[in-house]
């Protein structure tokens, strides 16, 4: 055996700079969530562990504003939740209609291609949203098995309105899927009111947690569809195992039928639940429920409005349509003559503040400035605006000094009863 | 909007019982790993974050005893690493030869079926291992694209010897995959010495970390095979994007070609790295490298031998062949007349100690008692044996009182220079 002393490389303790993350996520994690992760493990079928799992289900029903029994966690990042939803809902060869208005809409097709879905799309320009009539017309034209969309696409900072979309899908016998990674915990993700079937999220944006766990909720009718695709693993199947009639799900890890049985009273073994991430997800939801959903959404709106007011007062131009702006990340055009990446580096190196770059057609054209979760707070908005002003001035861009911070303060003061800090 | 005050359900802080987890995993996490997870987030392309990613790669090269450039983490539990390896290596319709000697061998076929692989198997009785000649004969007979096996299958507590297996595969132009989830950090997982192509693991067993991150290492020839299946995502592809010539990988999340580009200097965006789990994985590896691999493997062997000696001195019969026993989990027959689950419950309720149940043909016949990672320590072995003795006596099973603990102590004392506690 090779001894490692020869090649041994050692590094110091984890000690990241204390940086304010005002990009599109991940953002700073609520200290209570970080502390929750220091709790030690439990056996995965211990009553205490399954109790925590059940509590997590109850908490995420509140987060997703739903009564769906099947509300739990997929063990992976937000993208894992998206793939689990699509691979479990959409059968190979079945038609999937995707509303694409940004990078994450493209991601849905990317994932669906691998599944072998027959893909139809509603493609709208980045920065715009689709009215319900356009969605219904496309459903009538394409007759898909599943309709899929992004709620808030951080690549464009726009939020697709979803009121009435579930009803349209049900009227036409179509299952619906919504990716709410970037909005969950910051804007109303009104699963039951929208009437949509499957919604997934992440922790690392408005939930104020770390990336690595994907909350999901599934309606009863979607669960019935998924359970019709179930096949019990050979290694654990009993004599009473019953397989479903539909095409088997093309992934074991993302087989939501099996994951539901793991989270059900049956506790059929599947993966080993990511215990620390479960603790984090549970604590993030506890903080949200304690704060109250409406207060939390108002806090995000207040931060977003103040950020927008401040950026405009600095003479900058916001990207996209005001009416459909996400309440937690703001796109702003990089002023002419300013090198966007140089300014971002200066923000990081001089102020220890991160703001976001952009993808695809918006790369080099806009910055994306977030105020999400634990960072949707007055002082963090003010500090970010003040730093951005100084950086733009240092980069030779003329702008009225002090105007951004003052406008953001005024925006907060104009909000009746707005909480100045975090939770009410 | 529905107000949550009506239905609000609240639960208390995470506060698990301080339980000693002496089953087949997850086990208690090293306190340093838990503390590492309290560090706050970094932007995913911050130099500090990519620096930690590079350090993690260097550390896991030591853990996997390899010089493979491609050594990194898959964001999900150990099962996610298995699926990423198989879906990225095995093309639909290609032949996969699986050595099956327990539940996790069955899991490999389960996953491979979903991929559409043409599966061939070497099936050997649970509790046995396959000699290299048997593996070579099956490779010659079936001519697979990939050969896959489990190193230590916790369902049987046996470790498959892998010396020479990589050379056999290379001689016949076959790629090789090893699942080392249950042995990584506890027994030598000698990637380069074995000459195998892809090895995956988990944190929650001998690495002394929480479940939720799957370390992986990939040889250059396997990486070339996987990169020939790459296709760049539409949302981030530049004008210079080049797609490979082989069948596209059937999963986006588990597309190792894309994950490699994320971990490479290119830093092509894929998922958002699970930062807290990266911190945990990095700290677990740091502890292992500090302890020294040989010392760590000796610590696991010492705990395992003492556990075996203690169980035998109590009059119990071990399961499986001594020569091929894993050095971190021991199977022991439940004595006649004892209800295995009642005894396990009593262990948990009276002593706060968990020992493991069993799957499939071994369910109700054996317990599986682990001494893994932070729990492969003398005092934990002694405490577990003492508790098991008391529980068996309480359940009416006659046995020599004190014999188990004394035999385990003697086993430790007989080991020249054996460290009494944890790290040397």
From TrEMBL, chains A, B:
<comment type="similarity">
    <text>Belongs to the class-V pyridoxal-phosphate-dependent aminotransferase family.</text>
</comment>
<dbReference type="GO" id="GO:0019265">
    <property type="term" value="P:glycine biosynthetic process, by transamination of glyoxylate"/>
</dbReference>
<keyword id="KW-0032">Aminotransferase</keyword>
<dbReference type="Pfam" id="PF00266">
    <property type="entry name" value="Aminotran_5"/>
</dbReference>
<keyword id="KW-0663">Pyridoxal phosphate</keyword>
<feature type="modified residue" description="N6-(pyridoxal phosphate)lysine">
    <location>
        <position position="205"/>
    </location>
</feature>
<keyword id="KW-0808">Transferase</keyword>
<dbReference type="InterPro" id="IPR015424">
    <property type="entry name" value="PyrdxlP-dep_Trfase"/>
</dbReference>
<keyword id="KW-0670">Pyruvate</keyword>
<dbReference type="InterPro" id="IPR015421">
    <property type="entry name" value="PyrdxlP-dep_Trfase_major"/>
</dbReference>
<feature type="binding site">
    <location>
        <position position="368"/>
    </location>
    <ligand>
        <name>substrate</name>
    </ligand>
</feature>
<dbReference type="InterPro" id="IPR024169">
    <property type="entry name" value="SP_NH2Trfase/AEP_transaminase"/>
</dbReference>
<dbReference type="InterPro" id="IPR000192">
    <property type="entry name" value="Aminotrans_V_dom"/>
</dbReference>
<dbReference type="InterPro" id="IPR015422">
    <property type="entry name" value="PyrdxlP-dep_Trfase_small"/>
</dbReference>
<protein>
    <submittedName>
        <fullName>Putative serine-pyruvate aminotransferase</fullName>
    </submittedName>
</protein>
<dbReference type="GO" id="GO:0004760">
    <property type="term" value="F:L-serine-pyruvate transaminase activity"/>
</dbReference>
<feature type="domain" description="Aminotransferase class V">
    <location>
        <begin position="42"/>
        <end position="356"/>
    </location>
</feature>
<dbReference type="GO" id="GO:0008453">
    <property type="term" value="F:alanine-glyoxylate transaminase activity"/>
</dbReference>
